[in-house]
Amino acid sequence: MRTPADDVDLRIVQELRRDGRASISAVAEAAHISRANAYARLSRLVDDGVITGFTAKVNPVLVGRGSSAYVTMRVDQASWQELRDQLGRIPEVEHIALVGGDFDVILLVRACDNEDLRRIVLEELTAIPSVRDTKTALIFEDHDTR
């Protein structure tokens, strides 16, 4: 059974969230531990599923995704797994979350332009039988906090 993350684990995670390409030496220094200990802890964090992958942060505008929106949806929740899989196959859908409240699902959609965004929302999403309705909030500016 996995023990909860301690302060050292949290410092390792924080450093990797700041810079996913940080060297093991930089991770060790940030966590105030030896390189050997940092390597062992990092391996354990990956093996235990605490760290689920390493990725690059990308400027969506510079990769041709100049129009972004949060799309909320009310859906037939009985078909959640199937819907989640369908949404995951839409390349412009960057993030999917099942939530509680006034709507059931929220998506982060990044499209080429507003015309492409319109197509995704009004043609692709509304064509899915389990989607009851959608609301779209355009993103004027967004910033990663990490």
The total count of strands amounts to 4
Classified in CATH, the superfamily of the largest domain is Lrp/AsnC effector binding domain/regulation of amino acid metabolism (RAM) domain
Overall average residue pLDDT: 93
Instruction: Using the CA coordinates, give the radius of gyration.
Output: 19 Å
How many domains? Answer: 2
Give the class from helix and strand content and strand pairing. alpha+beta
Name the poorly predicted regions.
none
Strand order of the largest sheet: 2-3-1-4
The description of the largest β-sheet is: 4 strands, antiparallel
Global morphology: elongated
Return the CATH topology of the largest domain.
Answer: Alpha-Beta Plaits
Helix content range: 25-40%
Q: Kindly provide the name of the CATH class of the largest domain.
A: Alpha Beta
Which strand-content bin applies to the residues? 15-25%
Total helices: the number is 5
